[in-house]
Amino acid sequence: MSQEKENVQHLDTQRSSSDVAAEAGIDLEYEKKLIHRVDWKLLPILGALYSVALIDRTNMSNAAIAGMMLDLELYIGDRYSIALLMFFVPYFIFELPSNILLRKVGAAKWLGTIVVAWGAVMLGMGWVKTWTQLVACRTVLGFFEAGFFPACVYLVSCWYVRFEVQKRMAAFYLVSVFVGGFSAILAYGLMQMEGRHGIRGWRWIFIVEGAITLGLGILAYFVIIDFPDKVLEKKNGGFLTERDVEIIKSRIDRDRDDSVADALTWAKVGKHLCDIKIWGFSFMFLGSTVPAYAFSYFLPIILSGMGYTDAMSQILTAPPFIFATIFGMALAVVADKIRMRGPIIAFQAVVCIIGLAIVAYAENDGARYFGTFLGVAGAQGNVPAVLSYQSNNIRMNSKRSVGSALQVGFGAIGGIMASTVFRNEDKPKYINGLWTAMGCQFMILAITAATTVYFRIANKKQALGQKILENHEAFTYTY
Fold first, then answer.
1. CB 66 within 8 A of CB 184
2. What's CA 10's distance to the chain center, in Å?
3. How far is the C-alpha of 346 from the C-alpha of 343, rounded, in Å?
4. Is the entire prediction scored with pTM above 0.90?
5. Span 307-362, pLDDT tens digits
6. Residues 6 or more apart in contact with residue 449 via CB below 8 angstroms
7. Inside any domain, residue 9
8. What one-character-per-residue DSSP string does 118-175 give?
9. Which of 25, 101, 169, 353 has the most Cβ atoms closer than 10 angstroms to its Cβ?
10. CATH number at residue 410
11. What is the SS3 assignment for 254?
12. In a domain, 275, yes or no
C-alpha cells in the first residue's frame, strides 16, 4: 500500500494540526516550543536577506533623484524604464532552474552563493559610467536574484502546516517591506556623502548597500537551515534532534501528507504545469506585484512631482511602507486564525484600488499622499496572502517547487509591467500606470471569486466520495 493510502486515516485538513495532535496524545507544549525555535532560526535570516534583495532591486528611484538620472542621461526616451525592466527578464527565466538546484545543492550553500553574487554586482553598480553599463548590471542582478524569493517561499511552505503559513510568509516578507521603507532614508543619508573620495552621492547608495548585501550573504552560509527531510544531513549546531525532525514531519503529514520530498523530474514539471490552479495563483501574484513594484520604483518620483524637495521625497517614502507592514501582518494573523484566504485577499485588493484611485484623482497633495498608504498596504499585504493561497491548495514537494517558481516568475512580469506603464510622459500623476495597477486588482477579485466557487464545489464532491483532490483521498481545499 502506498504511503499516501496509509496516511489517509490521520490526514485531517478541516481541523488544525494541533487539534489532531491533542487527540493522538502528542506533547503540544513541546511542539509549540519546537515551532518557535524553527521560527527564530528560519525567518529572521530570510527576512534580512529579502530586505536587502528588495532594497537592491528598487534603489534605482533613490539613486535617480540623487543625480544618477542626469549623470547617466536616463531622462532621454525610456532609458530609465529599460534599466528597470531588464532586471526582470532573467529574473523570470531562471526561477524554476534555480528551484531545481536548490534541493540538490542545499539551501544554505545555494542561497548564500547567489546573495554574495548579487551583492558584488550591486557594489559594482557604484562605478558604472554609462546607462548601457547600468542596464547590463541590472540584467546580471536579475539573474542572481532570480532564485532567492521562490526558494524562500518553497522553504517556508515545507516547514509549516497550512494554517500557520500565512503569518510566517508575512513575517519574512513584510519585515523586508518595513526595512525597505527605510531604504529611502538610508539613501538620503548616503547622498550626504556626495563628493567623498571624489564619488557622487548616488554611487555611494550602490556601494554601501552592495557591501551590506555581501556581508549578509556570507552570514547566510552559516545560518540558513535546509528542508525538514534534509536538515539532519548538515551540521545544524544541535538545533534539532532526530526526534524533533520526526515531530516536524509528523505535523506536516497530519496536515497534508508530504513531509518526504518526491523527486522532481521534467515529466513532473510538465504535469504540474497542466494544473490550471497554479496559473490562476500566478496571475493573482502578478496582480499584487504591479502596484507593489510601482510604488517601490516610482513613489519618490511621484512625491517629487507633488512639489516636495528631493530630501523630503525620500523621507516621506518610509511611512506608507511602515503602515503596510502593520496592516499586512495583522490581516495575515487573522487569515490563519479564521482559516480563510479568499476574503482577506479580496479585502486587500479593494483597499489597494481605493488607494490607487485617490493617488490618481485627488486634487489635494495631502489626500494623494494618504492614498499611497492604502495603495501600498493593499498591494504589499496581498503578496504573502496570495503565496499562502497557493501553498494551502497544492501538495507534494515537486509541485511546491514548480508552483513557487512559476508564481514568483509572474511577479517578475508584474515588475516589467510596472516598469513600462509608468512612463516619463505621464508625469507627474501617472494616470495610465495607476489604472493598469487598478485593473490588476480587479483581476485578483475575479480569480479569487472563481477559485472560491471551484474550491467549494470540489470540497463537496470530495466529501461525497466523487472526487479525489491533489492525489489524496482526504485532502480538501482552503478558500
1. no
2. 32
3. 5
4. no
5. 888 778 878 888 999 999 999 999 999 999 999 999 999 999 999 999 999 999 99
6. 342, 346
7. no
8. HHHHHHHGGG--SHHHHHHHHHHHHHHHTTHHHHHHHHHHHHS-TTTHHHHHHHHHHH
9. 169
10. 1.20.1250.20
11. helix
12. yes
